[in-house]
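Crash report, auto-generated. Payload:
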Amino acid sequence: MTALDSGARVWAGLAVTPSSELMFIVGVLLAGALAGEFIAATTRLPRVVGYTLAGCFAAAFGHGVAMPLGGAAQTVTDLALGLLLFEIGSRVHLRWLKRNPGLAVTSLAEALLSAVAVAFVLRLFDVGWQTAVACAILAMPAPAAVSGRVALELGAEGQVTQRATLLTALNTLYAVVALILMRTWWAADDGGSLPQALAGLAISLLTTLGVAALLAGATYLAARRLDLRNESAALLLFGLVAFAIVAARSIGVSTLLMPLLAGLLLRNTSERPWVWPRHFGTSGGALVLMLFVIVGSAWSPKILVAGGFAALALLAARFAVKTLAIVALSRWSGASWRQGLALSITMTPLSATALVMLSELMRAEPELTAGAVPIILASIAVLELIGPIAVQFALRLAGELPPAPKRARPNKEAS
Amino acid sequence: MSLGVFSKSEPLTLGVELELQIVNNDDYDLAPVSGDLLRLMGKHKIPGNVTPEITSSMIELSTGVCQGFGQALSELGQIRDALVDCAERLDVSLCGGGTHPFQHWTRRRIFETPRFHELSSLYGYLSKQFTVFGQHVHVGCPSADDALVLLHGMSRFIPHLIALAASSPFVQGEDTGFNSARLNSVFAFPLSGRAPFVQTWSEFEVFFTKMMRTGVVKGMKDFYWDIRPKPEFGTIEVRVLDTPLTIEKAAALAGFIQCLAHWMTTEKPFKLSEDDYLPYTFNRFQACRFGLDGTFVDPETGEHRVLRDDLTTVLSRLDTHAGDLHAEAALQYLRREINGVGNDAAWLRRIEDENHLLPEVVRRATKRWHG
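Recovered output after restart:
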């Protein structure tokens, strides 16, 4: 045996075939980061466009994620979205709604009226009532990831950014509660009784609230003792939220509602500021990157054709009604019409939240959901690249992006 | 632009200007929403005025012409309440203090007006470093010559005023060790410091014309002096105060200045001399650095005293004047700080010592401002 052979044998002994889950995570991370940096280096667009593009390419060549989500894709999506919703919740003061009733009405109007409009428009396309209502609820939430990530990356600050956070938290809340209600209603239609279904809803909400309260309490204790502005200390918080989300998934509690409620509880039960690195720093950033790649890959050319015009009509109705509601109420809520328009555009994208809700619905009620799947997936696909670019445009329209750096002219006197 | 005529104003009337911080209610960093706040303020009827400042997370309020402490407090209260009402509709807060404890100057944005952009292009990063917040007090003067005499008399009390008002111990997330770190930013400007020692308006006009000829200044606005005459209003303007954490303190400081002016114009207790300025920068540094515990060098005798003790003496001399001006409550407010709780800088440090979290310090400061 030559030295080379024996070396190769030792080496072969050390080799472990990677699991498919590991391959998936590494592949997603690498493709997303590469595309994101390419976009950042060659254009002025936010990196999320690159992340999404990586997903789109995978899907176009038939390697998109399968629905309903499972395995590593589900774990990553749960964690990333959970972290984002926890953070969004922890930035929302509900007392703002009391001090600014115009904003409270704006929130209800943009969410409910757009859902009603979506349902009616889909009926025009001969979509059944059940599917139309399901689509309306799934299209209600603005994405937790898109406007937040674009604003964070571009350093946007101001009323539109702040109001987008509030409206996103609220319409996600409405949508998840509406989804649970719809499922209990379907269950009742199925032969169960209505009181039984309502009791089921109450139990589901109370359990969610219980887990959320535990998470909020644990975060409170950690934040009082540690300086969470330090990224290493913030890892503990990351671990706590991740643990709560995994626990929630294992006992069937909504992984969207639980972290959102926990954040809201934390923010609204104590006046103390809660400060940690936005999106949990680099660790959260990696998850958010993978979230964009996964959502970007959740379509196929076949689905686009199947969803087709119904999806386009859904998006048109949704955008028109959200814009109408927000712009009409902007003066009452203390914003200018230009800010109103910008806010409507930041509410337009449709992404991970809808995808996770769809996935949960598919798993629970596969037959009843079948009609909604192509419409929602096609809608997400249509908006996923335009969405972040539109958000960037809207934030510029509202004057919330920092000015592009100018080169300083040396020794310039005031003229 | 020439210096113009010195307008007539009623002697010893007051005007108060305050530069305020606008902060978000999330991590309590500065929030660039002065445009929104001003738009909402349009619907409120207030005495005085609210105007934008150089960066969009600052706002300036000013009272009208006030007879004394009581009116100043009442006008500040009305403006404060209107501003707080608008701020709450935007889910932001307002805050006093001479600096924001942890804002980063690179993130500040210049408010959209030509003058602010011009200043920004001239001063570069200084204009953003200049995200500091001061209180200016105008005192009415019967004539231009009287104004200059009062200005130089008042200069002797600049250290006292700095120490009382100091509320800027933290800058860019660090404890600077100073009571008023804000003034260090002001001193970086080329035309900061003190006015030249001239006691008549004609001599001042000669100085101003010479400065104009050098091309260094174009108007009084280009002088960043600690006290400067304001010919348009017929006042002198005291500019060394950090914005206090409450309107009560702001009104008390204005009342104190009015008492000092009343004392100096009625009793003429000092003979003015150029030599008064020999210990000026030393005294000013001591006040900025150590606040009420700083050393005060008496310009006449050369005696060294602790500012706190000298203030106690000064306040006791002002009691009869405070009686004439109905400003007893103002002096009482300041006595409480001198003898007990300390200035606002001490309060801010205490809160940071208890919490080790500057955002919490800002939150508590907003509570005090909102009243």
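Post-recovery validation: Chain A has 18 helices and no strands.
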